[in-house]
Amino acid sequence: MPRQIRLNAFDMSCIGHQSPGLWTYPGDRAAEYNTLEYWTDLARILERGKFDALFLADVLGIYDVYKGGPETALEQAVQVPVNDPLMPITAMALVTQHLGFGVTCALSYEHPYPFARRMSTLDHLTKGRIGWNIVTGYLESAARGMGLPKQAAHDDRYDIAEDYMQAAYKLWEGSWEDSAVLRDRRGRRFADASRIHRVQHEGPHFRVDAIHLCEPSPQRTPVLFQAGASTRGRQFAAKHAECVFINGPSKKVIGNIVADLRKQAALAGRDPSDLVIFTMMTVITDTTAQRAQDKYRDFLGHVSEEGALTLMSGWTGIDFGAMRPEEVVRMGDGTDAMTSALEAFTTADPDREWTVAEIARHAAIGGRGPVIIGSAEQVAEEMRGWVEEAGVDGFNLAYALTPGTFQDIADLVVPQLQERGLFKHDYAPGTFREKLFGRGDRLPATHPASGFRVR
Q1: 227 in Cβ contact with 135 (< 8 Å)
Q2: Helix (H) or strand (E) holding 255
Q3: Fewest CB atoms within 10 Å of the CB: 13, 87, 258, 283?
Q4: What element of type H or E holds 286?
Q5: Where does the pLDDT of residue 134 fall: very low under 50, low under 70, confident under 90, or very high at 90 and above?
Q6: Comparing C-alpha atoms, which of 101, 74, 88 is closest to residue 34?
């Protein structure tokens, strides 16, 4: 039986996510990001298409590296304005039964104690359909906004993350025993206090002395996503993540990252197949290949290559506005931003050199990931090729238009994948974790969080 492909929709609570400028295209609804109707309509489309999850990106801070300021980002709505990604989730959960929600929350600027409560609350209200994309942040503007002179160095941020995870695991797994909640109306006892424990954590970056504020949620610890593909990020993912989101322009680049991630998981004592690895992709499709190509050419008349360079400048720490279009981008040009973003266009594929102009054209639709253009049959075969050649398990599908791109995938591509035996015909029962892995709703005993459970 062929491997089942996983599909997430990739969105963000903003106007210009991965395809700057296309919010101006007739019929695009990205500018309605600040209405509940946008999100509930999107959730219904995704559940109709049997998507595994809606993966919500987020960023704290403004893209102000390009040309030394925030003007281009503000004028062209390049991931700003951006709302809190958690707020629409409960509304989307109300209009769906199965769709999972992977939400990005940076741990660098929030204490684990209140954050653990928010995740547990969402896990309760979604009936166990919440996942957390663990990120450490990458914009200097975010650090300044939090009153810091600058953000921590790239690898140091992962040391902070290690401490954060220990504290969060203790709150989710070790505070309330499974049998602590009684709900005894006759005896007038809601819980057995002797089975509820105070968490005491003394780490190098965080201290906690508290009882977790929430009773145990369906999954306790949310499904753990991780989106760092740098060398240090892969080590962190191999230890903690259940799902890993990676990004790159080609199968060669992605295949190397996938192989290293699975190797790192084995070194960490985990089964490499326990990692579900998603790569970003943007699909432009229609009923025929020619119609898809026509659609793509039409989109190009609305994209903003300057907006794309604004994104890339923020991701890499390089001011592309200060470079010539024909200038080749080198690994040593970057800063302590998102190291993997620079690696994907430099050292990850030594056979290819990227100029500033080429990066602008590539990133104008779909950001750093590949853009697949063709009929639904061609797209399905291309997805099969990525799974077989690069070793990924599925795709975080960015949009050119919203919700149009997701409607096309649900109505055209998904039936082709199902016909090939590559995609489910219906959802499995249970929580998000149960649907993804076909096992219990709790993290397995091989995961480091299990060591903090109350026995």
Answers
A1: yes
A2: helix 251-267
A3: 87
A4: strand 276-286
A5: very high
A6: 88
Would you tell me the crossing angle of helices 376-390 and 251-267 to the nearest 10 degrees? 40
Residue 287 has a CB neighbour count (10 Å cut-off) of: 11
Closest to 133 (Cα-Cα) out of 57, 231, 22: 57
81 cis-preceded (ω within 30 degrees of 0): yes
Q: Whole domain around residue 388: which residue ranges?
A: 6-287+369-452
* Residue 196 resides in a domain: yes
pTM score of the predicted model: 0.93
Nearest alpha-carbon partner for 38 in 280, 46, 168: 46
Query: What residue ranges in 46-129 does DSSP mark as E strands?
Result: 53-57, 100-106
What are the backbone dihedrals phi and psi of residue 296, each rounded to the nearest 5 degrees, phi first?
Answer: -60, -45
DSSP-assigned letters across all residues of 198-210 = -EEEE-SS-EEEE
Average pLDDT of the segment spanning 449-453: 92
Average pLDDT of the chain, as a whole number: 93
Length of the chain counted residue by residue: 455
Q: What distance lies between CA 198 and its chain's CA centroid?
A: 32
> Which of 173 and 148 is assigned the larger pLDDT?
173
Residue type, 165: M
Structural domains in the chain (count)? 1
Query: Which distant-in-sequence residues (6+ apart) come within 8 Å of 171 by Cβ?
Result: 112, 113, 116, 199, 208, 210, 212
Residue 301 covered by a domain: no
Burial 130-166 (b: 16+ CB within 10 A, else e): bbbbbbbbbbbbbbeeeeeeebbebbebbbbbbbbbb
Own/partner long-range contacts of 82-87 (Cβ < 8 Å, ≥24 apart): 82/12, 82/13, 82/14, 82/58, 83/13, 83/14, 83/33, 83/34, 84/13, 84/58, 85/12, 85/13, 85/56, 85/57, 85/58, 86/118, 86/122, 87/13
Per-residue confidence at 368, pLDDT binned at 50, 70, 90?
A: confident
Q: Hey, is 119 helix, strand or coil?
A: helix
CA distances from 343 to 11, 228, 243, 248, 352 (A): 24, 12, 21, 9, 12
User: 189-191 and 181-184: which strand pairing?
Assistant: antiparallel
The token duo for 366 is 């779909």
Q: Is residue 256 part of a domain?
A: yes
Q: How many whole angstroms separate alpha carbon 75 and alpha carbon 367?
A: 19
CATH of the domain at 140: 3.20.20.30
Residue 214: alpha-carbon gap to chain centroid? 25
**450 Rama sector, left if φ>0, alpha if ψ -120 to 50, beta otherwise:** alpha
